[in-house]
Amino acid sequence: xxxxxxxxxxxxxxxxRGFPPYQWSVYETAPxxxxxxxxxxxxxxxxxxxxxxxxxxxxxxxxxRNDLRVDAIPAETASAHxxxxxxxxxxxxxxxxxxxxxxxxxxxxxxxEGVVGSxxxxxxxxxxxxxxxxxxxxxxxxxxxARRLADEAVDAVVMVPG
Amino acid sequence: xxxxxxxxxxxxVRAPRTAFVNFPMGNPFGHPFDKVTQRRILLEALHILGSxxxxxxxxxxxxxxGEEFGLNLGAGYARA
Lengths: 162, 80
Prior knowledge:
The complex is a heterodimer.
Chain A: H1 6-16, E1 43-48, E2 52-54, E3 70-74, E4 82-84, H2 92-96, H3 104-112, E5 118-119, E6 122-126, H4 134-151, E7 156-160
Parallel strand pairs in A: 1-5, 1-6, 1-7
Antiparallel strand pairs in A: 2-4, 3-6
Chain B: E1 2-4, H1 7-13, E2 17-20, H2 35-51, E3 57-60, H3 75-79
Parallel strand pairs in B: 1-2, 2-3
């Protein structure tokens, strides 16, 4: 099937509710930092914005606005030890198997097989929806995460929007 | 790099590297407990890391969900 036209359909949805047009982030160009090592020498982390937290951490608040919380999740966390709180996508399947959106078991396996160099000490979860303070994300929250990833000698991050 | 189920959404944001997976939002790596598909998508995404030479590249991963699916947005939108 053809990809769903989310932008058009969400614009129509907001219009039908009488909301002003949503201000999408649109960029014409993007930088590229080349991968400097082969994959089997790279340390890889995961990042999700799907409202994922460990069961022993507070749940994310689906109704929060401008929540810049980012959790560092020890990479050895068992895949059954997660909860998802996000009302803006259907996470019924991911509730049963977190690997549907946050494939930490599969990444562990690839590292154990030597396909990937290693799993980073932490994965990350944050950048929930309903964030209207883009400048704060771009100048504070995202650079703080980038510094942490650099401190942990992470070579690559697989980011999965929720 | 980004693994995305929203082709148009991610095209306009233009991350340095995007792998588009034409699966429902909420299932970018496939069905629960389908280890083969989860692994394949993760691995293909990881290979894109080294193959992309221009920032803003979006690669359509070969994948087929097998049935039609809709917006799948969750309860929050119903409240709006």
